[in-house]
Write a structure and sequence with these properties.
The complex is a heterodimer of chains A (112) and B (113).
Chain A (H helix, E strand, L loop, with lengths): L3 E4 L2 E5 L4 E7 L6 E7 L6 E7 L4 E4 L2 E6 L4 E6 L8 E8 L6 E3 L3 E6 L1
Chain B lengths: L4 E3 L2 E4 L5 E6 L6 E8 L3 E9 L2 E4 L8 E7 L2 E6 L8 E8 L7 E2 L3 E5 L1
Parallel strand pairs in B: 2-11
Antiparallel strand pairs in B: 1-3, 3-8, 4-5, 4-9, 5-6, 7-8, 9-10, 9-11
Classes of the chains: A mainly beta (112), B mainly beta (113).
């Protein structure tokens, strides 16, 4: 089955700088890669997703890149702000069944 | 448009008691997922349904856990008997079909004393 590895587990970034979170997946048939943001005590919420027919997708300060050959994808947050502090999860699905496999999460701290 | 609705939001009970968590998916969503979240194990998929039918329950930890979906608008996750190690946040999520975004409920924070 699918396995998703996420790094780093914790990331501290100065406010205004960029943050990058990286994930790898094992099932080459996976074709859908969502990213979720979870604030303390809240539910995971989708922030951006990408499909395997696209190499990059942007939404304001957030971008995701996908390298199918290497089976890895990354989340990029530019001009970080205090409200970006949260846990971020990558995920992969579509490799033969309907479930989404989540990474272990990255706790992002934005330092003042 | 109402999102995924879970109840109760918090549950505190003594070990050995039966616990029932409830979920109402978004209307029109054919897939329903139950997750458990802990610090140690992260977000784990327990079971998911498609059109009210359980498709994969390989994540259900033990026979003490069971889940049902009697109709398209309601699902339950039951733990009987409950144990302290079952303490976690349990999320329900729904989606329209495969490879589509999952929408999460606010979760049930379960504490077994």
């Amino acid at each position: 089955g699918e396995n998703v590895e996420q790094h780093p587990s914790t990331l501290s970034v100065q406010e205004g700088d960029s943050a990058v979170i990286k994930c790898t997946y094992s099932d080459s048939a996976s074709n859908y890669f969502p990213w979720y943001k979870q604030e303390l005590g809240k539910r995971p919420q989708l922030i951006i997703d990408i499909r395997s027919n696209v190499g990059e997708k942007k939404d304001q300060r957030i971008a995701v890149t996908l390298n199918k050959t290497a089976k890895h994808f990354s989340l990029h947050i530019t001009e970080t702000q205090p409200e970006d502090s949260a846990v971020y999860f990558c995920a992969a699905s579509g490799g033969g069944d309907d479930k989404i496999i989540f990474g272990k999460g990255t706790r992002l701290h934005i330092l003042p | 448009d109402a999102g995924v609705i879970q109840s109760p939001r918090h549950e505190v009970t003594e070990m050995g008691q039966e616990v029932t968590l409830r979920c109402k998916p978004i209307s029109g969503h054919d897939y329903l997922f139950w997750y458990r979240q802990t610090m140690m194990r992260g977000l784990e998929l327990l079971i998911y349904f498609n059109n009210n039918v359980p498709i994969d329950d390989s994540g259900m930890p033990e026979d003490r856990f069971s889940a049902k979906m009697p109709n398209a608008s309601f699902s339950t996750l039951k733990i009987q008997p409950s144990e302290p190690r079952d303490s976690a946040v349990y999320f329900c999520a729904s989606s329209t079909r495969e490879s589509q975004p999952q929408h999460f409920g606010d979760g049930t924070r379960l504490s077994i004393l």
